[in-house]
Amino acid sequence: MSNQPHAPSGTKHTTRHRRPTHPDRYERGTRSYTMSHIRGKDTTIEVLVRKYLFARGLRFRKNDKRYPGHPDVVLPKWHTIVFINGCFWHAHQHCEAFSRPKSNVEFWTAKLLRNRERDERQHAQLVADGWRVIVVWECELAKTVREERLAKLYRQITATPARQPGVIDDTIPTE
Ligand SMILES: [Zn+2]
């Protein structure tokens, strides 16, 4: 399957008109191409995390549009919001899985930095509203480390007693 528009057959252009590389399209050369990156869709990594949490008995809302960033997992009982972030689109800092764009570098760099800043603003807003915000990164869900990360996520979510509005626990280590 290709999203590339094909020129209809029989319309050979003699001009050497070359379409500019389109910055809005996802670069096929980047590592994360196969990872869906669009917030609000059920991507593989989101499904993975949700399935795990559900199997552990947690109940949640998904892609809740009432909150900044449309969080992937919202656990009202635990006052916890979980974002499951692709390392490319959310510009995971110091991440080995994050590969730099190979073309349109300036465009992508600016865009990804904006994404990261937007994430930070949204997370700060959620924390101000009394939510604990946890980010699970795509690279943390690589096969070799996945199990450990998911177990830790469960502990992070359930670390504090349920239903304590206004209590923000920032003492839970992220590493
Ligand atoms: Zn990463």
Question: In terms of topology, how is this protein built?
Answer:
Layout: H1 44-55, E1 61-62, E2 73-75, E3 80-85, H2 105-128, E4 132-137, H3 143-158
Parallel strand pairs: 3-4
Antiparallel strand pairs: 1-2, 2-3
Bound molecules: zinc ion (ZN).
Concise account of the structure shown:
With 175 residues, this protein is of the alpha+beta class.
Q: What keyword list fits this structure?
A:
alpha+beta, 175 residues, 3 helices, binds zinc ion, disordered N terminus, Endonuclease, Chain A
Strand order of the largest sheet: 1-2-3-4
As a whole number of angstroms, the C-alpha radius of gyration is 19 Å
Run of helices and strands:
HEEEHEH
Q: What amount of the residues lies in strands?
A: 5-15%
Oligomer: single chain
**DSSP E strands, number:** 4
pLDDT < 50 runs, ≥5 residues: 1-38, 166-175
CATH architecture heading of the domain at 45-158: 3-Layer(aba) Sandwich
| Distinct ligands | zinc ion
Tell me the helix content.
Answer: 25-40%
